[in-house]
């Protein structure tokens, strides 16, 4: 049974259909929560809150987007609310530019010499995770949704209620920030 049929059955009170929708999407929602919030407990809470909200709001679901996009929106909103409640330091574009001296370095380290070695390198994975976690929430969210979860710019725009140009800009800025962080790591490795 496809997603649309399951949604219609769930809207008509079929709890088995909703259970099947949960089973089809729970791993993606959990992983999204884990990546945005950074720990298993918060990701599990996010998963539960997302499906409770989805179940309560299912009669209002109009199908203008796919069910999974709608779930991503709910989960992302919960994650961002949690980050705001925990008073994670917000950073403005000016502060981001200040951290990078307002310029983006053009001398980028060559990462291609041994990709297999770098892929297997646990230290690199840790540095990458730290760099992603150091992104301001609005950049971290779009980076995770686009580059890790593989969602399209259109889907991300819908999920976050952003314009397409704003979404593209945030993706670009998150990548520049990460590139600079990772270039610092590779320069240290070269020395």
| Backbone shape | elongated
SS-based class: mainly alpha
- The total strand number stands at 0
- In the CATH hierarchy, what is the class of the largest domain? Mainly Alpha
- Integer-rounded radius of gyration: 19 Å
The largest pleated sheet is described as: none
Could you describe the 3D structure shown?
The chain is an all-alpha fold and 191 residues long. It folds into two domains: 3-85, Orthogonal Bundle (Rna Polymerase Sigma Factor, Chain: A); 93-190, Winged helix-like DNA-binding domain superfamily/Winged helix DNA-binding domain (Arc Repressor Mutant, subunit A, Orthogonal Bundle). Helices cover 74% and strands 0% of the residues. The chain is built from ten helices and no strands. The chain has helices spanning 3-11, 15-37, 40-57, 67-85, 93-99, 115-120, 122-134, 137-148, 153-160, 164-190. Helix 1 packs across helix 2 (15-37) and helix 3 packs across helix 4. The longest helix is centred in the C-terminal third of the chain and has 27 residues, at 164-190. The radius of gyration is 19 Å and the shape is elongated. The chain starts with a helix and ends with a helix. Mean pLDDT is 82; it is low at 102-109.
Give the secondary structure arrangement, pairings included:
Elements: H1 3-11, H2 15-37, H3 40-57, H4 67-85, H5 93-99, H6 115-120, H7 122-134, H8 137-148, H9 153-160, H10 164-190
Helix pairs in contact: 1-2, 2-3, 2-4, 3-4, 4-9, 7-10, 8-10, 9-10
């Amino acid at each position: 049974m496809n997603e649309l049929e399951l949604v219609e059955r769930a809207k008509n009170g079929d709890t088995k259909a909703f259970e099947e929708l949960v089973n089809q999407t729970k791993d993606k929602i959990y992983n999204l929560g884990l990546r945005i919030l950074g720990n298993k407990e918060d990701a599990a809470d996010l998963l539960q809150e997302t499906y409770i909200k989805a179940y309560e709001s299912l009669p209002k679901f109009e199908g203008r987007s796919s069910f999974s996009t709608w779930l991503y929106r709910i989960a992302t909103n919960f994650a961002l609310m949690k980050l705001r409640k925990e008073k994670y330091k917000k950073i403005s574009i000016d502060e981001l530019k200040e951290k990078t001296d307002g310029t983006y370095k053009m001398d980028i380290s060559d990462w291609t010499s041994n990709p297999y070695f770098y892929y297997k390198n646990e230290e690199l994975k840790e540095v990458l995770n730290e760099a992603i976690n150091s992104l301001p929430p609005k950049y971290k969210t779009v980076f995770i949704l686009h580059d890790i979860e593989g969602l399209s710019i259109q889907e991300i725009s819908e999920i976050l209620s952003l314009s397409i140009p704003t979404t593209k800009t945030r993706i670009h800025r998150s990548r520049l920030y990460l590139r600079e962080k990772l270039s610092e790591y590779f320069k240290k490795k070269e020395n």
